[in-house]
Design a protein that fits this description.
The structure holds two protein chains of two kinds.
Chain A (H helix, E strand, L loop, with lengths): L1 H5 L4 H41 L20
Chain B lengths: L1 H7 L2 H33 L13 H28 L2 H33 L7 H21 L4 H15 L2 H11 L19 H33 L4 H7 L9
The chains are: A mainly alpha, B mainly alpha.
């Protein structure tokens, strides 16, 4: 078992390669989820500000959407 | 079929579909990653020349393949957006860049730690390595260019042109090991020939390539949703979604 874990002396290289790839995979999931949530929150805040009423339960609509994409 | 296609180009339908799809792609992808990793690290026999170090292939090749496949997807989506003025195509292109850059990084790092025991060096200015590094810079350039515009339509057009021009690098990466005397080993898989790898080593590789492809599509679906929502912010359906309604019934 220990012998197979040593991977013929290449365990360190293998661990690094698989580790970095795992970080990239997990990082992609976290980054994509976080970005989506933040975008949604930012747009919700914009919508609330525009309507002048707090969300949720806001029934007002179409209050002159003249502003473009805000940074 | 055509109705389905046109529906797909409609932002609320696309948004709803991408939402359903993302985890349906990511979960099978992650299961396949586990199977492929087990097959690659445990079941596949050591290579007769490279010993156990060859097992890096199971993360290196899928990452490198994705790095190029994502770039082509990004350029194609940009071209479709440019030619047919399909907004969703631009949203897809914009969502590709960071995913592609991350897998280019993975391909470079896994390649470097494979290079050290096999070639005696982490890095060499070899055609394959250099062109892959240029790919990483192309992704960075694409993202930087997008960020330089306040207007999303201008950003879409300019970045699409950069992406299309950069496609020239893809065949250079792919054929670099054939065209030039390279330190990098030749292709393991080829569409036209029988693979130069035995079955026990091959199936984990194919499993990982499939897994990474599904993974990319799942992450892409997740990212495109945010892009579409942001771009469609002025539309009634998007505002309804932000208020908690379902995107399709809201339309």
């Amino acid at each position: 078992m220990a012998q197979s874990l040593a991977m013929g002396g290449y365990a360190g290289y293998l661990f690094t390669a698989y580790g970095v790839t795992a970080l990239v995979v997990v990082g992609n999931i976290i980054a994509a989820r976080r970005r989506f949530r933040r975008t949604k929150q930012r747009l919700r805040d914009q919508l609330a500000r525009r309507a002048g009423v707090p969300l949720p339960g806001d029934k007002e609509r179409g209050r002159g959407p003249t502003v473009g994409r805000e940074a | 079929m055509w109705t389905w296609f046109f529906r797909l180009a409609s932002p609320p339908h696309f948004y709803a579909l991408a939402g359903k799809l993302s985890w349906w792609l990511l979960i099978p992808a992650l299961i396949l990653v586990v199977i492929g990793t087990w097959g690659g690290l445990v079941l596949a026999p050591p290579d007769y020349q490279q010993g156990d170090a060859f097992r890096i292939i199971y993360v290196h090749v899928p990452s490198a393949y994705l790095s190029m496949m994502i770039y082509v997807t990004m350029a194609l989506a940009g071209a479709i957006g440019l030619i047919w003025r399909i907004k969703i195509a631009h949203a897809v292109a914009a969502s590709c860049a960071s995913i592609g850059a991350s897998f280019t990084f993975a391909a470079l790092v896994t390649g470097a730690v494979w290079g050290k025991p096999m070639w005696g060096t982490y890095w060499e200015w070899d055609p394959r390595l250099t062109s892959e590094l240029i790919l990483l810079f192309l992704y960075f350039g694409y993202m930087g260019l997008r960020g330089a515009f306040d207007d999303v339509n201008q950003a879409d057009r300019a970045s699409a042109i950069l992406a299309i021009a950069g496609v020239v690098n893809i065949p250079i990466i792919h054929f670099s090991v054939v065209w030039w005397a390279s330190l990098h080993q030749g292709p393991t898989l080829s569409k036209l020939e029988v693979p130069s790898i035995s079955g026990a080593m091959l199936w984990p590789l194919l499993t990982m390539i499939l897994a990474f492809t599904l993974f990319f599509l799942g992450i892409l679906a997740m990212r495109v949703r945010g892009e579409v929502l942001e771009r469609e912010f002025q539309a009634r359906w998007a505002q309804d979604v932000l208020r908690g309604a379902s995107p399709v019934s809201a339309n």
